């Protein structure tokens, strides 16, 4: 058994090491430093079909992540999906004719929302709704349309 | 025939009694938790025994588990052209499952068995009875610091295991197999959630810390005070702790990640 002083030293090192490991996991491994859960502002967007978009999916402009999907709910009156987007507070100059598209990263990757800023001088503020939206492209629909077109050409 | 039925009944009753004694012991440990605030030195000693002395085995196991995950994950993922997701796979498996579970199993074998043997021997040599003679409560003086030490050490050890494992996966994936370094870290950061993955992993290892130290302490405290009894209790402590950890892990995983 080492001396009392050494025990305290070693225990201190151990606890510090454990906390450093936790800190490393939080900062380097998890999305802790990307998290913007309590700051930033919320925009709504209505889509006729969101495909397989999930909560926490990224929201990006020009491929740069500027926020995430906070919640998805169904509006029974209009049969639309209402998606709440949490946008970083630093991105506060989105024009109110911004376009929201649902894209897929890669062929089989996850879906995300891509924003394309328009040219309007008015800016979107907390709680505003993005009116220009384009739904997710569904592979089945595209194949169906393609086959339909082919059939029309040949017949 | 009647004997066989009676034996079965006695076995069940004894198991139930042991379960009951175990919970009574846990309750009196929990009631005595304030003791560690009055004598923090006892806690430091136990953090040394359980935490510091387990560092080497935890670090080395974590490194090798991470490196194996890197190799195996790359083998499967590269077939789908998704080798960039290697970081996600390594980190998710470590933080969610392997970190807490393997650490708990290693601590049960490395420190839990030592706790059982120590306390069983104290009982066999009547040191616990001696303490009681001097009006010192052995639960508060002996068991509580060990319990708190085990519960506190477990999440720290699990975090070290996971962190070293992620680095091991990095060495193999990026250094050996040529996965893109940026993709390894950025995909990991994008997919591993702080609350969902990390905090749940810490909660898991806290729960494992409670059951592993509780089982080890109880088996020692409840040991038949002979050489053979202590050796049986030590075996039982490791076996029971391992089984309970694996079973509890399934339940916790189902509760935490069951809904996708």
UniProtKB/TrEMBL annotation, chain A:
Parts of the chain that traverse the membrane: 7-27
Per UniProt, the keywords (alphabetical) are:
Membrane, Transmembrane, Transmembrane helix
Q: Is-annotated flag, keyword DNA-binding?
A: no
Database matches in InterPro entries: ABC_MlaD, Mce/MlaD, MlaD_Phospholipid_Transporter
Q: What is the lineage of its organism?
A: Bacteria, Pseudomonadati, Pseudomonadota, Gammaproteobacteria, Chromatiales
Every copy of the Mce/MlaD domain together lies at: 39-118
In this entry, which stretches build a coiled coil? none
Q: Which GO terms describe its molecular function?
A: phospholipid binding; phospholipid transporter activity
Matches recorded under Pfam families? MlaD (PF02470)
Q: What is this protein called?
A: Phospholipid/cholesterol/gamma-HCH transport system substrate-binding protein
TrEMBL record, chain B:
Gene Ontology cellular component terms for the protein in this record = ATP-binding cassette (ABC) transporter complex
Its membrane topology is listed as: Multi-pass membrane protein
* Similarity comment text for this entry: Belongs to the MlaE permease family.
Question: What's this protein's name?
Answer: Intermembrane phospholipid transport system permease protein MlaE
Assembly mode: The complex is composed of two ATP-binding proteins (MlaF), two transmembrane proteins (MlaE), two cytoplasmic solute-binding proteins (MlaB) and six periplasmic solute-binding proteins (MlaD).
| Domain of life from the UniProt record | Bacteria
The residues that cross the membrane are 50-71, 152-177, 198-217, 237-257
What keywords sit in the KW lines? Answer: Cell inner membrane, Cell membrane, Membrane, Transmembrane, Transmembrane helix, Transport
């Amino acid at each position: 058994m080492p001396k009392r002083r050494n025990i305290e030293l070693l225990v201190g090192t151990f606890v510090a090491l454990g906390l450093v490991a936790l800190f490393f996991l939080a900062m380097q491994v998890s999305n802790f430093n990307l998290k913007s859960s309590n700051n930033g502002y919320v925009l709504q967007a209505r889509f006729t079909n969101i495909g397989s978009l999930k909560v926490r999916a990224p929201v990006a402009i020009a491929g740069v992540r500027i926020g995430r999907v906070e919640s998805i709910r169904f509006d029974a009156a209009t049969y639309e999906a209402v998606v709440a987007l949490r946008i970083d507070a630093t991105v506060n100059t989105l024009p109110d004719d911004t376009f929201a598209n649902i894209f897929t990263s890669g062929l089989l990757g996850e879906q995300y929302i891509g924003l394309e800023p328009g040219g309007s001088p008015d800016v979107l503020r907390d709680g505003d709704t993005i009116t220009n939206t384009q739904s997710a492209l569904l592979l089945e629909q595209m194949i169906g349309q393609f086959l339909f077109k082919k059939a029309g050409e040949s017949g | 025939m009647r004997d066989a039925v009676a034996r079965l009944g006695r076995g069940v009753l004894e198991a139930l009694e042991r379960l009951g004694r175990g919970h009574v012991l846990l309750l009196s440990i929990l009631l005595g938790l304030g003791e560690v605030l009055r004598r923090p030195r006892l806690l430091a000693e136990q953090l040394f025994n359980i935490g510091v002395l387990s560092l080497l085995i935890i670090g080395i196991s974590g490194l090798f588990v991470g490196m194996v995950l890197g190799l195996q994950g790359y083998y499967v993922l590269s077939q789908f052209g998704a080798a960039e997701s290697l970081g996600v796979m390594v980190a998710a498996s470590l933080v969610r499952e392997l970190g807490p579970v393997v650490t708990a199993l290693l601590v049960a074998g490395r420190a839990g068995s030592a706790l059982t043997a120590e306390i069983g021997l104290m009982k066999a040599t009547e040191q616990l009875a001696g303490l009681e003679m001097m009006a010192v409560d052995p639960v508060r003086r002996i068991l509580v610091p060990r319990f708190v030490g085990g519960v506190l050490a477990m999440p720290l050890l699990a975090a070290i295991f996971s962190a070293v494992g992620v680095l091991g996966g990095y060495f193999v994936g990026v250094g050996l197999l040529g996965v893109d370094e940026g993709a390894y870290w950025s995909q990991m950061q994008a997919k591993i959630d702080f609350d969902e993955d990390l905090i749940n992993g810490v909660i898991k290892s806290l729960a494992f810390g409670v059951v592993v130290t509780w089982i080890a302490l109880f088996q020692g405290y409840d040991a038949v005070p002979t050489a053979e009894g202590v050796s049986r209790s030590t075996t039982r402590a490791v076996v029971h702790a391992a089984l309970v950890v694996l079973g509890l892990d399934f339940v916790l995983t189902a509760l935490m990640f069951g809904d996708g």
